[in-house]
Amino acid sequence: MNRLLFFAILASFIFSSCADESAIKEMKTPFESSDSIETTTYEEAIDWWRALEKESAYFCLKEFGETDAGLPLHLIVINSARNFNFESIQKSGKIKWLINNGIHPGEPDGIDASMLYARQILSSEDFEQNFEDIIIMIIPIYNVGGALNRNCCSRANQNGPESYGFRGNARNLDLNRDFSKADSKNALSFIELFAHWNPDVYLETHVSNGADYPYTMTYLLSHPDKLALPLSNYVNDHLTPILQSKMLERNDEMIPYVNVFGTSPDSGYSSFYDSPRYSTGFTALHNSIGLLTETHMLKPFKQRVTSTLNFLHSLGEILAKDVKSIKDARIAADEVLQKQSEFILDWEIDKSQSELLNFKGYRAYYDTSEVTDEQQLYYDRDTQWEKPIQYFAHLKAKVSVASPTAYLVPASWNEVVQRLQLNNVVMKIINHDSTLNVTSYRIKDYSTSPKPYESHYYHYDVKIEEFENEVDVIKNTYYFVSTDQIKKRLIIEMLEPQGPDSYFNWNFYDEILQQKEGFSSYVFEPEAAEILKNDDLASRLDEFVALDSSVNNNARSKLDFIYKKSAHYERSSHLIYPVFRIE
Questions:
Q1: What local confidence, expressed as pLDDT, does residue 20 receive?
Q2: 130 class by beta-carbon count within 10 Å (0-12 exposed, 13-18 middle, 19+ buried)
Q3: Which domain holds residue 532?
């Protein structure tokens, strides 16, 4: 090639790159154009991101999955190598950081902060060097239906913006209660995306509710006690302290999420228990590090967006330098969990352990309300205090279970099968008739919420009875799900009925709770009399009546007791959990 032509092309490339950087810097966001009093609408956000894509070769905007609103979800991929092929990215060895905004569109700080963050890093001369080993992925607005349901006033306790989206999605579901049960199309799309891309780190942006205090930013991570030890050590010993330090360097001191409602934090508070319905509980099942930002609701909107932007820069700087540490910790965590034989299904705050947390607060006091004439909590912002308070940072086991070798999952409950498959759980259909020895569960007792919660009458406090059983498996009716795989923890927490966010507790198996056949008392009475000639059963009936005085004068209850001991009762299906364990 002619040397003059070569240098002309090189100069043209350099000039166009500089022009791109300059053009990106000039791209004002709708947030900035409104003088920082409005958040970006859904339409404005997608248009802005598309415009940015035209200006930057490091940037790609993709559509993925459906939402309940009928509009697609979008995914932004930022790669310093200018390569957006999935297979190439997977082979690159880079870590993947997924940022999810607008899960509650009434809490929009991250929607606008992510736009500012992308513009700032993409227009930086050092972008390729600083982000050489990290892929940044951004969901600009996850709850599309909620973002379209724009209003001024549904966040009664929040200081701006002037208008914003609504917490519920197009079906009025809270999407940060939907990660395990996945009722929404949004969640089904997200699960598939998460399993496909397998992010190393996940960040979700929120605005808090609850107590009043001086901090703008509070944060929450996948609870370290629930993480496998290699990840827990990285989060506790490295990520958290450095993240706090970097925010402090930006003059934006932050504190762990203040889990206090109806009282003040003066006497201390507990960490948040994130079961798998929540994003950080869900990501923990995949050995990914999950984080939430929770800016304080009463701080001005501009201040909250700035604080979220500070957090994005702080976390991004850490991740860009910690690529090897994060990858090594995830690999080690996978190995630990695959060897683990005992799993905790449910947790509770450990009140026997606390640590001192240096906290800045406002004076809290009670006074008579002018509205209710009752005592009401108030905060005096003119009187600030600072002192160590108790922080209950640890969880302890409430319910545990030993891992089986495998589960038999019936194909007939297709909604469960679909969710396991979307989570990349390896499942093999049993394609031949066979008889297998299994452990079965009988549901002995459970409680159910008296009112619907997130479209379900949720079960809790489940009591089970184990028994050994022999199951005749007809070909193509059961999946064999080995626990010898990376998704071991997810499999166990979703399929064990005592897990707080198990498929059983979210009503996917409610059919087994209903008895399908019954009896007419006048027809069954003579047979019951014959059955009672069995002395053992007669004495057990006496014991049954003695335990509950209401049964004494209740003929139907007595007959029902006998019926359930007869050959007529569907003892192989009623209250028998249809997922079996192979030990």
A1: 66
A2: middle
A3: 521-563
